[in-house]
Design brief:
The protein has 375 residues and is of the alpha/beta class. It has 15 helices and nine strands. The strands form three sheets. The chain has a five-stranded parallel β-sheet, sandwiched between helices. Strands 3-4 form a two-stranded antiparallel ribbon. The longest helix is centred in the C-terminal third of the chain and has 25 residues. It starts with 20 loop residues before the first helix and ends with a helix.
Amino acid sequence: MQPNPFILEPYRSKELFCDRESETEQIIDYLNNGRNITLISPRRLGKTGLIYRIFEEIRERQNDTDTFYLDISSSQSLEDFIKLLAESVARVLKQQNKISSFFKALGGLRPLISYDALTGAPEISITYRNDNDKTLTLKGIFQYLEKHDKKVVLAIDEFQQIREYEAVNMEALLRTYIQPLHNVRFIFCGSKKHTMTDIFSNAKKPFYESTTFVPLGKLDVDVYEKFITNLFRTNGKKIDSESVEHIIDWTWDHTFYTQTLCNEVFFRSAENITITDILEAERRILDANRDRFLELQRLLTVAQWKLLKAIAKEGSIQHPTSSSFIQKYHLGSGAAVSKNVKSLVEKELILVENDGSKDTYCVYNVFLSRYLEKD
């Protein structure tokens, strides 16, 4: 069976990765000039893949630099953060046979290490005597990276999650340990634009103006169309330009959803792809997600689901509390709609995007929006 070139994992190789050349060069230049980066984009738009692409390019160009990545989206505490950071460092050092020196840098806590049976990735367990041990361990990891025999680039994905930690001012703690570092450059990534902006642009917060912002938008449509067409062609399938335009339009040029639809089309279609193949792939995707969407409906109030459906039918809207929109879909009072919009934004079911002059609201999940507009 022909391998499917439209991957759904964040990154595999530059041949299967579309564009982002200017962002890659820009961020590498910033890092080489001693800047830390704040990288912001909605979920599933490709920021994790971009980080891996940047890391690959750094390793190819600069053999004096090590790259480390950790995703803290699942973390709930300082202890979780330390565990993920330590495992990120250990993954790289395992290849260099330097784990023992890393553990020595953590003092007398003697971390326990095991390895995942499937991936071989290191899993670290640390027993703390008190909270002071935790802060000292975090400090020890950063000090180790500062003294590392190579330059260090550390990417922390979904960085806004530190705002959820209880019993610790994580922003102040991290800033204390990060500020003196000269050998380590950071890429702070996040999908909640408002929170990330507040962390790095609020004069009252520890990280104020400590990074260079790099917003990540959607791919250029023309570039993406050529990439998709070429990937089908070089893997033995033909697709016309109208079909590719339809794919990008139906998925709103949102990387994850575009890749998913292309993946399904490639998997199920014959050598010559038709618009019928694409429409059938769309149907299969929505059918496969139906139970999940119905479960989501049960978790929301009737008014919230009705509002979500109304926005989906519009595609996007600038003024969800306008009387014309409310009356068209019988949504109730403006105050109730405003409250529900806020709740759905917090739940990451509605995405708010700003072009510099106005806010636009849409359903965050493209497939959910396509499902709702038909309902």
